[in-house]
Amino acid sequence: MRRCVLLALAAVFLLSGAAFAGDTLKIGFNIPLTGDIPKVGESSRNAAEMLKEDINSAGGLEVGGKKYKLEFIYEDNESKAESAVNVALKLIERDEVLAIVGPNSSKQAVPAGGTCDDNRTPMISPWSTNPDTTYERPWVFRAAFLDPFQGPVAVNFAAKQFGAKTAAVIFDISNDYSKGLAEIFRDVWEKKMGAGTVVAFESHGTKDQDFSAQLTKMLAAKPDFIFIPDNYNQVALIIKQAHDLGWTGPFMGSDAWGSAELIDLCGKDCVGQYFSTHYAAAGAKGATKEFIDRFAAKYGYIPDDVAALTWDSTRLVLQGIQEAGEVKSSVTKMRKAIRDALASITQFDGITGSMKFDEQGDPIKCAVVVRINENGEFVFTEQVCPE
Amino acid sequence: MEFLIQNIFNALQWGSFYALIALGYTLVYGVLLLINFAHGDIFMVGAYIAFFVTAFLLGDFGGMASGALPGWAILALAVPLTMALTSCVGVTLERIAYRPLRRKGAHRLYVVITALMCGLVLENGNLALLGASRKKFPELVDKAIWTFGEVSVTNLKVAVIVAAVAVFLILQTIVTRTKIGMAMRGISYDKFAIPLMGIPVDSIIVFTFVLGSGFAGLAGLLFAMSYPILEPYMGALIGWKAFIAAVVGGIGDIRGAFLGGFLLGFIEIGVAAVFPSTLRDLLAFSILLVILWWKPTGLFGVAKTTKI
C-alpha cells in the first residue's frame, strides 16, 4: 500500500516537473521505427538528433531575444496508416507539441495530414510525394517535391537514357505513394509515346515476397525497361527475381529507393540502375557536403534523402517558431503563429536545394536522377528542375 | 506455351514452400490433434537461424577465417545445423508451452490459443532482440540461370522443388514404414491405450516436433536463399496460408499437406498470371473454399477416426 502511495507521489512530481518546464519547445516526430521501412525512421531520428544537439549545445533556439531548449519526441508509427493517425493524436493531445515532423511515407502522411489539419497543428512531411498529403490542408506542409513532377522526370529520363519506346510498371497497390506514382507515370508515358505503350501494369500486395507471376507476365510483353515505384525492401526482391527470370534490361526507380539500406539488401543486382530522388550524396558541395560528412562521422553511414529532408523540415519548423516572434503562453496560439509563419515562407535554402512554396504548402524544387555505381554509391547523373 | 511452362516452374517453387510448411502442421496435428499455430513463426526462426549459421560459417562473427570454406561446403554444413537448431526451438516450445497443458489435461482449445501466443512471442521476441531492420541473406552458391527459349530456371529453383519432394518421401516413409511411425499413428488412434503398450508417448511427441520443426528450418533456409530479405513477420502470412493448404489437403495426412501446398502455389501463381494480381488472394481462397464445401475433410482427409 505504502509503495503504491509513493509511486503515485513520484508520478505526480514527474508530471508536474514536465508541466512546469516552460523553457522547452516540444516538437513531435511521427516516424516509422519498426514495420516495413525501419531505416527511414532511423535516418529521420538521427538527423533530428544531430540538429537538436547543435542547437541545444549553443544554449537553445533564440525566439524573441530569449533562448529556449528543444525537446524532440519520437513516436513510432510502425509504417502503418492507422498507427500514424494514433501517433499524431498522441503527439497533439498528450504531448502538446508545437508542430509535427513526419510521417515520411505517403501511405502514413495522407491520413495523418488529415488528423493534423483537423486538430489545427502544423505538420510538415519530409518525404511524402503524394499530392493528397497537403491538398486543401492549410496546416500541412512538406519538404519533398510532388509525384506529378517526379513522374515526368522518370518518363523523360528513361526515354532519353534507354531510348525506350515501351515500359512496364510494377507497384504496391496498398501504398498511396506507389500506386499514385505508378498511375501518373503510366498517364505521362502514354501521352508521350502513344496509347498502349505501357505494355504491362502489374500490382502486388505489401507483404508479398514472390513476384514471379507478375514478372513473367511483364517480361512476356517485352518492355524496353521496367519502372518500379516501390519501397526499397521490395525493390531488392523484385530486381533479383526479374534477373532470375532472365531479364537483362534496365530498371528505373523513384525516390523510395533512396535508403541507406538498399544496397545492403539488393547487392550487385542493383548496380547500374537509375532512380529519381531529392539529392545526390556523392559529389555534394557546400552545406550539403558538410551535413553529409558530419552525419557519416556520427552515425557511420552516408545519410539518405530522408535524413537530409528531415533536417530541412525540422529547420523549417524552427524558422517558423523564430518568425512567430515570441513563445506564446497557450499551445493553440503558438501553433497558429507557427502555421502562419510557415505559410509565409516563400524561399528556403535547404541542404536538398533551395525551395519556394506554392499556395498548397508544396515546395517547388529540383529533382536529381542518380545511378547506383559499383561501390553502391548514388552518383549524380542529371538534375531536372520545374519549368 | 513458354509463358505457361515458366509459370509452372514459378508455381512449383512457390508451392514447395507451402508444402514444406504444411507438412509440419500436418505432422503435429496428426499425432496430437493440435494445430500448432506457432509453426509459421518457427519457419521464420529457421530462416534467422540459417542466417546466423551461415554468417558464422562465413566468418562474420569470427567463427572461421573469412573465405576458409567454399560456398557449397557452407551450405552443406548449414543445412543440418539449421535443421538441428530449429528443431531445438520446436522442442522447447513443446516442453514449456504444450506439455504442461497436456499434463493437466487442458482442453485442446486452450492449447491452440497457447500456440497462437507462442507465435506472437517468437515474432516480437525477434523484433525486440534483433531490431526492425531487415537482414540480407548472403549468396552462398553461385547462381546459374538456365534458359530454354523464353523459359528461365535457376539452380536454386530446381533445388527447392527437389527438396520439397525429398522431404515428402522421407516423411511418408517414416510414418508408414517405421516402428516410430507406427507409434505416431498409434498415439493418434488412442492416446490413452498406447502407453499401456509400453510406448513412451512423450518421446514420440518430441520426435514429431523434431521432424516438423527440422523441416520448417530447412524451408526457412531455402526461403532465405530464394527471397533473401528476412524480417520478423515473414512467417505469419505464409504460415497461415500453409495451414489452409494443409486443411484443404486434409489435415493429418502427409500426401494431403504436400498436394495442398502445391495446389495453393499453383492457384496463386495462376491467378496472378491471368488476372490482375489484386485478385490473387481473393480468387485463390474462394477456390479453396469451394473445395472444402465439396469435401469438408479436405482432399485426402478421412472423417474422424484415425489420421496420419
From TrEMBL, chain A:
Pfam families: Peripla_BP_6 (PF13458). Keywords: Signal. Transmembrane segments: none annotated. Residues 109-129 are annotated as: Disordered. Residues 24-376 form the Leucine-binding protein domain. Residues 1-21 form the signal peptide. It comes from the Bacteria. InterPro entries: BCAA_transport, Leu-bd, Peripla_BP_I. The keyword DNA-binding does not apply. Belongs to the leucine-binding protein family. This is Branched-chain amino acid transport system substrate-binding protein. The lineage of its organism: Bacteria, Pseudomonadati, Thermodesulfobacteriota, Desulfovibrionia, Desulfovibrionales.
UniProtKB/TrEMBL annotation, chain B:
One of its GO terms (cellular component) is plasma membrane. The chain crosses the membrane at residues 12-35, 42-59, 71-93, 105-122, 156-175, 233-251, 258-276, 282-303. It is a multi-pass membrane protein. It comes from the Bacteria. Its main location: membrane. It is found in: Cell membrane. One of its GO terms (molecular function) is L-isoleucine transmembrane transporter activity. It holds the Pfam family BPD_transp_2. Keywords: Amino-acid transport, Cell inner membrane, Cell membrane, Membrane, Transmembrane, Transmembrane helix, Transport. The keyword Transmembrane applies. InterPro entries: ABC_transp_permease, BCAA_transport_permease. GO terms for biological process: D-alanine transmembrane transport; L-alanine transport; L-isoleucine import across plasma membrane. Belongs to the binding-protein-dependent transport system permease family. LivHM subfamily. PANTHER family: BRANCHED-CHAIN AMINO ACID TRANSPORT SYSTEM PERMEASE PROTEIN LIVH, HIGH-AFFINITY BRANCHED-CHAIN AMINO ACID TRANSPORT SYSTEM PERMEASE PROTEIN LIVH. This is Branched-chain amino acid transport system permease protein. It comes from Desulfobaculum xiamenense.
